[in-house]
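Recap for those who missed Tuesday's class. We walked through two folding examples back to back. For each one, the amino acid string is listed first and its predicted structure tokens come directly after. Nothing is annotated here on purpose, so try labeling regions yourself before you check the end of the notes.
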Amino acid sequence: MLDYVRYYVHRFFYKIFHLKKEPNKTIAVAHRGASGYAPENTFAAFDLAIDMKADYLELDVRMTKDGLLAVIHDETIDRTTNGSGLVKNFTYEELKQFDAGAWFHRKFSGEKIPLLCDVLKKYRGKINFLIEVKEPKKQFGIVERLAKELIEKGDQQLNVVVQSFDTAFLQEFHSVLPSISLGVLIGYRHGAITEEHLQQYAAFATYINPNKALVTPKLVYMIHQSGMKIMPYTARDIHDIQHLMAMNVDGIITDYPDYLTNLPKSPSYSKRSRIR
């Protein structure tokens, strides 16, 4: 009986103190699509992310031998296809011959490595895009190629963020296409992120996207004070997501976007709660 009374007392005061608070608006970023459920960087993973109400598709791009932008994470096709070799050594017509889904599960057999232009065309107006450029120093002409792709698809109408670990690339891209928001990726080995770092990044970037292990309440505060936003990577369980949300991050990059979009809309939650 006592627990019953306590429950209703708690609910009464919760409603009083949270009545005017807005629902949670943490941005759900589907890491390589809903890659916890479908083969990464494929239309299957992207379609599922849309179904799960993700806000952004995060995807990776690399240049092919014929100068097109293929959506693939690794430098080689070995891990995520039934082929072998460097992405840059294949034309896109050659890359299309490989299966990019069966490695994950046989039900995804027949999935192909997409082109960035096809992804933008298919999902434009349905979701936003977070495009990571992999190892830009190894990809001659990547700045011009990506800028041309986005301009042709209508960069002013697309909601796109381009991100990279390479700040020199980001600065060059900003000088070529300043209308596109940029994100600085920061790995765990970077160490402490100082105010001096943030002042430098704020000159060209809108987002700071660090490894989740680097995120602290102080870092989130510093980033917000610098006029930027933070979307850490890569959350793979509900506890990570709740921990990051408690620190007031702006978005979360996750393999499981439904973990975030299915969270109760209440601004308050228990750290012990789980999604079944």
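Example two. Treat it independently of the first, because the proteins are unrelated.
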Amino acid sequence: MDPTTGPFGGRNDTLRLPASTRRRRLALLTAGLICLAAAGCGAAPQTTVAPGVPPATPEGTSVVLPGQLTWSDEFDGPAGSPPDPARWGYDRGGQWNREELQYYTDSPENVALDGQGSLVITALRDDSGSRICRDGPCRFTSARLSTAGRFSQLYGTFEARIKLPVEAGLLPAFWMLGDDIRTAGWPDCGEIDVVEHPGEEADTVHGGVHAPGHSGGATFTLPQGRSFADDFHTFTVRWTPEAVNFFVDGVWYGRRTPENTGLAGWVFDQPFFLVLNLAVGGEWAGRPADRTRFPQRMVVDYVRVHSWDTKPQ
């Protein structure tokens, strides 16, 4: 993957439903449309449901039951060591088409194991002026990892346990891209966002899909004013031939299907590879505020992929 040749990622506008309480989980669920990252767009029209009434969980997706483990990284290793090169490669550079402000590096200052079973992606201020981004000298450094050329899979359960940073101007994400991105380009290759988190929305994350002519997804909000920076949470996509379903900590909060996307062609029928990154700036997250503190860290406990299990769920 050439990191300087165009937008690989997605940014979303959000159609947000009000929070509703699930009795068993005490989690608030919201749903909505998400719009495109690379181009930017206006707010979607609002839709609401009655408070306290969660959206119906579609049959077959009420519980995440993974199939066989096909790929994982538990990030075990000495503090300061790089992520496993057999599993992850680096996207480097600063020429990103999303008004982002970071330069992605492979420096251990930006990406390394912590020696306690986690991967840490760190965003830092960079006042050296030595790195060039789209709009001039880069003001920040960070990291973006992918499994392109190393691992991809069609269908299954894709999940990561992550502690997300919460500050204005940050956009940490765990997402997937179609294997044919080099030949088809984006968004024709398709994109599945397992989790995206505009940093100032402390209690809210988004999941979604992007394809030609469509960007849509769902929104999840923690209960009682909790923050995603307070603890680790598990973000999961359950992907089958019929649908892409989204979960936080095992709680279903949305799905995309050929029917509710309105797509003439469903592009989510090829293997996708994985991406982890911590972006700074961009049209969705906005520019870091004066109060935004650095360094900022995205801490990943594990990433696991299971095969598609056709048993009823």
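Answers for example two:
Residues 1-63 have pLDDT under 50 and may be disordered.
Residues 7 and 62 are 34 Å apart (CA to CA).
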